[in-house]
Design a protein that fits this description.
By secondary structure, the chain is α+β, with helices and mostly antiparallel strands. The chain has two domains: about 35 residues, no CATH class; about 35 residues, no CATH class. It contains four helices and three strands, in the order ββαβααα. Strand 1 and strand 2 form a beta hairpin.
């Protein structure tokens, strides 16, 4: 996490740490000014190139990715034709 204080102002400051560390800081320090809180998201799901593209799509779907997004991601990462991969996946 990052707490950004007084962004674009003279006393701009960035405090980095875990949520627990920043909470501890806020409880023990004199907190002044306007803050913006930045929270890191989950890392992007990656696909290994060892498995079959259709298996990779299934794996992404099992992890919560929507079908079309999974097809698009696998096609892009493997430099495959998205429409052809879509037809193969849906057995068209």
């Amino acid at each position: 996490m990052v707490l950004a204080r007084e962004v674009t102002k003279r006393y701009e400051e960035y405090l980095r740490g875990t949520a627990a560390e920043l909470l501890n800081w806020a409880q023990t320090a004199t907190v002044r000014g306007e803050f913006v809180m930045l929270i890191g998201g989950a890392p992007k799901e990656t696909v290994t190139f060892d498995d079959d593209p259709l298996q990779a799509i299934q794996s992404l779907i099992a992890n919560g990715t929507k079908v079309n997004a999974a097809i698009k991601q696998v096609a892009k990462e493997r430099d495959l034709n998205r429409q052809e991969l879509y037809r193969q996946f849906h057995e068209l």
